[in-house]
Structure formats: C-alpha cells, structure tokens
Fold this sequence. Notes:
Blueprint: H1 7-26, H2 40-48, H3 52-57
Helix pairs in contact: 1-2
Amino acid sequence: MTKNVGTLDRVLRIVLGVALLIGFFLNRDGAYSWLYLIGILPLATGLLSTCPLYSLLGIRTCPLKNS
C-alpha cells in the first residue's frame, strides 16, 4: 500500500478516531452509541498513512519523494 496521507491529515484522522472511540466508551447506553465505532476507520487510515478512498480518487496529501 502506497502512503497517500500527509502529516496534518494523519494527525487529524488519529485525533478524530480516538475522540469518536472515547465517545463510544463514555456513552455506551445511548441509542446510537454504536455509530461512534466509525472512529475505527479514520484511526486505522491515520495509523497506516494510507486511505483506500484517496487511492481510488487519485488524491495525495503526502508530499512526493524525489528519488
């Protein structure tokens, strides 16, 4: 998998993912608390520095390396 997520994008994804997962654990009894589990997706893409949707759309927020 090619890295296509830049530093700022990566940090925002990790923060959003962690915040949503914390929301899930703080609000387990809510009617739609399971929706907080969507936070797994931005957390995973942030940690792996790759986004499948970005790959499909040809988007890169990661700077290109000059070889």
